[in-house]
């Protein structure tokens, strides 16, 4: 019963975590914030976890662990629901566009190139900007998302150390690894559903049910598209609330595996348990006396410390990969957020789940000791890293955007810092360089806005709007001025689809191989410490991952991604908003650096292996 309840909790917490990561780009665009701020939001989960995990890990083992886990699930549910609250407080989402489908829009309206600008039109645009600026003040509500994620972290602190130590206390040693492997497998099944839920919600417009979808002029692949990011948090919060219920009906302790229920319920055994529980109910002050000595014993354990260091580096890489892979697929291969989340959910996550499950079976089938577990971890780390090396060769070219990545003639690639959105063909149009409403010209080039394409007339409405007389669009024979453009960016090159498929295949394979060594590594941390330090060792281990892995990784990598931005959105009140376009070559270099972090792990795992071999079997060498 306890294992089933804990498995459901693991499923829900991983569902919520993966869904949060799948909504990174949606949150960034909805609140008009850079990736570095989104990284802080993502890291807030670890911050909340950090606040209580050490105390929960040490003192929680002395009390009613199932009820503490149930209380943690309630907090996780409250935090998840809080993350959805800003949607209902902020009002409707308004994106910048040159196409008006509403009589009173709250967006800055720019017309195509017109040499005759009327004062009344300019005044109307100014008034609309002021109105939009007033409404934009609500965008600071991203703080509620941060606080909700932090509350999730506080609640999650009970499930890991208390749940795993509870299982290890009452299960046979040979079954403990299998049960933990099953838990980790369930935890990875959660992200499959989390990313799939993220894919479904990303396909729905953020204000579906409240606006006429025929008036929405952007598509799923548009950098301004925001899906129904809030919907998944409501679903995940409700499910987490249900998983909290069973824990309140579970006993404080269970009979050890192999002990019959009759013997466990016998008067002698119950009398012994009552005496043990009476002894456990000591004052907090007395319990605290042993905390520092216990911590010292952990930190002087060489195997434990080396394992924690290697896990921190590995966790850095995985946090970066899981957080920003959807964004990477969008930018590098031109996929929509919905497609990216769906494919991650059905390819990479099953590979992780299968790898973790098989690793548990390997530990149970071969009854691996510390030495065997270290060997498995070492070789899977090497093979997994080798699978990541080809990532760097899977490249696509930047989109051809006039003035940003190519010249207006389209014949020469340029660096964004050397480009200019203004050209002779649009110099008389008085265009704003801050506007982002891309159009695709007949010549296959994308222009940042119809005005910058030199277009002087339109036909059609909504998504079917066509711009005519575009002076910057050059056709065959260097003829200009008589060509048209349609809303949206031009399609990416065909080879990107092939590269995308290869990338997904390699990523799935590397995840599978890495995860084959996950359970052996986790068993090492449980078996290399004294039995009474199990809960504390898991808690300190998770604390270290949060402080040095989960918190800084999304923040510094988010800042690194921001440095690759070549076109920023502009807030209505001024200031930088969300990025509209990245230099994918710089983005790719940053992504490859995250995989290089994993290479360092190999050396640490190798050192861990050597220590284990010398300590437990000094005559058997790899």
Give a description of the structure.
- With 622 residues, the protein is mainly alpha-helical.
- The protein has 2 domains: 2-256 and 287-395 and 495-616, MFS general substrate transporter like domains (Growth Hormone, Chain: A, Up-down Bundle), CATH 1.20.1250.20; 416-487, no CATH class.
- Helices cover 61% and strands 5% of the residues.
- It has 21 helices and 7 strands.
- It has helices spanning 2-22, 24-30, 35-59, 65-90, 119-136, 142-156, 159-170, 173-203, 229-243, 261-265, 267-280, 284-288, 291-299, 302-333, 337-366, 370-388, 495-516, 518-527, 534-550, 552-562, 584-616; strands at 439-441, 446-447, 457-459, 466-470, 483-487, 565-570, 576-582.
- The strands form 2 sheets. The chain has a 5-stranded antiparallel beta sheet with strand order 2-1-5-4-3, with no helix packed on it. A two-stranded antiparallel ribbon has the order 6-7.
- A hairpin with a 4-residue loop joins strand 1 (439-441) and strand 2.
- Helix 1 (2-22) runs parallel beside helix 8, helix 3 packs antiparallel against helix 20 (552-562) and helix 8 (173-203) runs antiparallel to helix 9 (229-243).
- The longest helix has 33 residues, at 584-616.
- It is elongated and about 80 Å long.
- The two termini are 41 Å apart.
- Mean pLDDT is 77; it is low at 102-110, 117-128 and 618-622.
């Amino acid at each position: 019963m306890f294992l089933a309840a804990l498995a459901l909790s693991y499923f829900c917490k991983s569902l919520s975590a993966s869904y949060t990561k799948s909504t990174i780009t949606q949150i960034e665009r909805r609140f008009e914030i850079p990736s570095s701020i989104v990284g802080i939001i993502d890291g807030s989960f670890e911050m909340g976890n950090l606040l209580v995990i050490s105390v929960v890990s040490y003192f929680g083992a002395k009390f009613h662990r199932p009820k503490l886990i149930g209380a943690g699930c309630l907090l996780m549910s409250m935090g998840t629901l809080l993350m959805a609250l800003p949607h209902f407080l902020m009002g409707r989402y308004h994106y910048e566009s040159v196409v008006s489908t509403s009589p009173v829009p709250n967006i800055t309206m720019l017309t195509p190139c017109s040499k005759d600008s009327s004062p009344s039109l300019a005044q109307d645009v100014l008034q609309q900007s002021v109105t939009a600026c007033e409404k934009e003040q609500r965008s600071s509500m991203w703080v509620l998302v941060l606080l909700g994620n932090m509350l999730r972290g506080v609640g999650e602190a009970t499930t890991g150390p208390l749940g795993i130590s509870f299982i290890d206390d009452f299960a046979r040693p040979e079954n403990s690894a299998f049960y933990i492997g099953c838990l980790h497998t369930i935890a990875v099944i959660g992200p499959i559903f989390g990313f799939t839920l993220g894919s479904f919600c990303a396909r729905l417009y953020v204000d579906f049910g409240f606006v006429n979808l025929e008036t929405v002029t952007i598509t799923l692949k548009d950098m301004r598209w925001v899906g129904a990011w809030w919907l998944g948090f409501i679903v995940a919060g409700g499910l987490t609330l249900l998983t909290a219920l069973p824990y309140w009906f579970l006993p404080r302790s269970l009979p050890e595996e192999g002990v019959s229920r009759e013997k466990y319920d016998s008067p002698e055994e119950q009398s012994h348990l009552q005496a043990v529980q009476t002894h456990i109910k000591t004052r907090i002050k007395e319990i605290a006396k042993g905390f520092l000595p216990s911590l010292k014993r952990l930190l002087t354990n060489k195997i434990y410390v080396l394992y924690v260091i290697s896990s921190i580096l590995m966790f850095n890489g995985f946090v970066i990969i899981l957080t920003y892979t959807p964004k990477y697929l969008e930018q590098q291969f031109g996929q929509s957020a919905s497609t990216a989340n769906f494919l991650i959910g059905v390819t990479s996550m099953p590979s992780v789940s299968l790898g973790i499950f098989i690793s548990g079976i390997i530990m149970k089938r071969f009854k691996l000791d510390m030495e065997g577990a270290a060997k498995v971890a070492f070789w899977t780390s090497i093979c997994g890293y080798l699978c990541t090396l080809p990532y760097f060769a899977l490249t696509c070219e930047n989109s051809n955007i006039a003035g940003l990545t190519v010249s207006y003639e389209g014949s020469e690639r340029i660096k964004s810092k050397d480009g200019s959105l203004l050209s002779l063909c649009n110099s008389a149009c008085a265009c704003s360089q801050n506007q982002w409403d891309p159009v695709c010209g007949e010549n296959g080039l994308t222009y940042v806005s119809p005005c910058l394409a030199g277009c002087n007339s339109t036909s059609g409405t909504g998504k079917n709007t066509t711009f005519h007389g575009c002076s910057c669009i050059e056709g065959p024979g260097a003829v200009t001025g008589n060509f048209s453009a349609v809303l949206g960016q031009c399609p990416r090159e065909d080879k990107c689809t092939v590269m995308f498929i290869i990338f997904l295949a390699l990523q799935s394979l590397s995840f599978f191989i890495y995860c084959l060594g996950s359970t052996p590594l986790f068993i090492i941390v449980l078996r290399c410490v004294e039995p009474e330090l199990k809960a504390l060792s898991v808690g300190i281990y998770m604390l270290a991952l949060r402080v040095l892995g989960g918190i800084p990784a999304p923040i510094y990598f988010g800042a690194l991604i921001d440095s690759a931005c070549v076109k920023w959105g502009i807030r209505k009140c001024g200031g930088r908003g969300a990025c509209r376009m990245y230099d994918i070559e710089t983005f790719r270099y940053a992504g490859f650096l995250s995989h290089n972090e994993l290479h360092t792990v190999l050396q640490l795992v190798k050192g861990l292996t050597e220590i284990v071999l010398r300590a437990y079997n000094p005559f058997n060498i790899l």
